[in-house]
């Protein structure tokens, strides 16, 4: 650990302080818990200089050596899972159990990246008139990874791990709301993997637009991987108008779930509650629109309300807490606006529907009660906008085609959920849903072995699975005359 806790800029192998700092707050109490370095364009370009200088050395490092470095880091992350989880909870607000699960999942993702780096094979082609052909897969070059606040560990590790495994130097820009756990993960990966200077770097900043802008204006940056809002993601894509570069985007979700009348209703109620209310609903794959077959609606609703009633709001570090605060009051305002609009248009609040007022006076953050709305229809704001909070609207349907059509009626296409027992019926739904990830009787469809990403305005390219490393590799064709 550095002597100066605000030395959170890793540039060219050295941890540095900036000329300024910014505060990091606990979203549950709004208390300042740390100050970190506030990088600007100058530090960003210094990091890019170092990445450009390190690119050839890291590219020439064998896949086995890169893999061993990532495996060593994964082991260190597991060993420090408790402290990393506590750090994440302090700045993000999610319950400790969720935070630890994310940290351990990050270690799995890093190991998967290590394995994929050793499988980034090319191929040979049959002889032509002059000789054979070869297809090579080569590192794309210096990469910028922009990571979100809602999953500050897993998103950082997934991006950085795949880039490093492919042979690309990577500059990480953690979200300004949650820079602490990201900084610590970078420290672990850098030290455990004994990485050369410039291969892994990190920029904490309260000025993401200025920092990213300086990097995007430089043609040496060959790749950007971003997770966050659709608005920002589309602006990053527009930045390629002068310098074409590979861009991976994982953006908004607005995920639907369909509950057929042959679903296991108790198991489905539990899965829906978990998929919706984890991280206080602040997930790009949280269920945002729940379509329930009329035949099981009443039974399902009763069981779902039992699950929701069992949720406990509080500080994420407190024993028994299942639901923490929203990240800020801007998020709370949107939640309230969606609920008010839905009620105005005829929805009924079956659970929650208001801010939570804790007994502990120190809990001054943006808490909102887990909420279920019945009688929702497609005219409501919540039907067309992603809420990103603990509110679940329920829509009743009678016909499978109707449910699928309504589920697809969105500009987004990240994740969808299907609950049912009949294989043919479920498969037809999976086939017709226009989403990059489909969960079948499953609450958490994110696995290292599966590619993750969306269609339409939810993103470009994939992370994870055997497809994930492709985003960090270029294809080179070689024609040989013998």
Automatic annotation (TrEMBL):
Gene3D superfamilies in the cross-refs: Aldehyde Dehydrogenase, Chain A, domain 1, Aldehyde Dehydrogenase, Chain A, domain 2
Keyword Oxidoreductase tagged: yes
Name of this protein: NAD-dependent succinate-semialdehyde dehydrogenase
Entries under InterPro entries matching the protein: Ald_DH/histidinol_DH, Ald_DH_C, Ald_DH_CS_CYS, Ald_DH_N, Aldehyde_DH_dom, Aldehyde_DH_Superfamily
Family in the record: Belongs to the aldehyde dehydrogenase family.
GO biological process: one example: gamma-aminobutyric acid catabolic process
Origin organism lineage: Bacteria, Bacillati, Actinomycetota, Actinomycetes, Streptosporangiales
GO MF annotation terms: succinate-semialdehyde dehydrogenase (NAD+) activity
Domain Aldehyde dehydrogenase: residue ranges: 16-478
Record keywords: Oxidoreductase
Pfam families per the UniProt record, alphabetical: Aldedh
rRNA-binding as UniProt keyword: no
Organism: Actinomadura spongiicola
């Amino acid at each position: 650990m550095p002597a100066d806790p605000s030395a959170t800029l890793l540039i060219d192998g050295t941890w540095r302080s900036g000329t300024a700092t910014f505060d990091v707050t606990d979203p549950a109490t709004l208390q300042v818990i740390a100050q970190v370095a506030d990088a600007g364009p100058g530090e960003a370009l210094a990091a890019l200089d170092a990445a450009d200088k390190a690119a050839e050395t890291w590219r020439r490092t064998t896949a086995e050596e890169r893999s061993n470095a990532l495996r060593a880091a994964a082991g260190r992350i597991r060993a420090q899972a408790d402290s990393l989880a506590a750090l994440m909870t302090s700045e993000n607000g999610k319950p400790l159990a969720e935070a630890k699960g994310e940290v351990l999942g990050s270690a799995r993702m890093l190991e998967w990246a290590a394995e994929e780096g050793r499988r980034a094979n090319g191929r040979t082609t049959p002889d032509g008139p002059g000789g054979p052909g070869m297809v090579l897969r080569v590192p794309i070059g210096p990469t910028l990874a922009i990571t979100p606040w809602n999953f500050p560990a897993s998103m950082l590790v997934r991006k950085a791990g795949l880039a490093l495994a492919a042979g690309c130097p990577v500059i990480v820009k953690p979200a300004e709301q949650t820079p602490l756990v990201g900084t610590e993960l970078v420290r672990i990966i850098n030290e455990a993997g004994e990485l050369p200077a410039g291969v892994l770097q990190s920029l904490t900043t309260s000025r993401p637009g200025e920092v990213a802008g300086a990097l995007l204006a430089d043609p040496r940056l060959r790749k950007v991987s971003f997770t966050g809002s659709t608005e920002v993601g589309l602006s990053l894509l527009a930045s390629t108008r002068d310098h074409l570069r590979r861009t991976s985007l994982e953006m908004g979700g607005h995920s639907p779930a369909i509950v057929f009348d042959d679903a296991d209703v108790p198991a489905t109620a539990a899965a829906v509650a978990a998929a919706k209310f984890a991280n206080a609903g602040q997930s790009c794959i949280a269920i945002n629109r729940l379509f329930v077959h009329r035949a099981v609606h009443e039974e399902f609703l009763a069981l779902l309300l039992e699950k929701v009633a069992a949720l406990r709001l509080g500080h994420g570090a407190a024993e028994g807490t299942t639901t923490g605060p929203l990240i800020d009051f801007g998020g709370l305002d949107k939640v309230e606006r969606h609920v008010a609009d839905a009620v105005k248009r005829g929805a009924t609040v079956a659970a929650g529907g208001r801010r939570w007022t804790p007994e502990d006076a120190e809990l001054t953050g943006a808490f909102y009660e887990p909420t279920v709305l019945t009688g929702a229809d497609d005219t409501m704001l919540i039907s067309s906008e992603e809420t990103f909070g603990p509110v679940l609207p329920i829509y009743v349907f009678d016909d499978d085609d109707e449910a699928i059509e309504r589920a697809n009626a969105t500009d987004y296409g990240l994740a969808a959920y299907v609950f049912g027992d009949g294989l043919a019926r479920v498969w037809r739904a999976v086939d017709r849903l226009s989403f990059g990830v489909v969960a079948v009787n499953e609450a958490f469809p994110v696995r290292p072995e599966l590619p993750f990403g969306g269609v339409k305005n939810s993103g470009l390219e994939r992370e994870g699975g055997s497809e994930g490393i492709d985003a960090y590799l270029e294809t080179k064709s070689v024609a040989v005359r013998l």
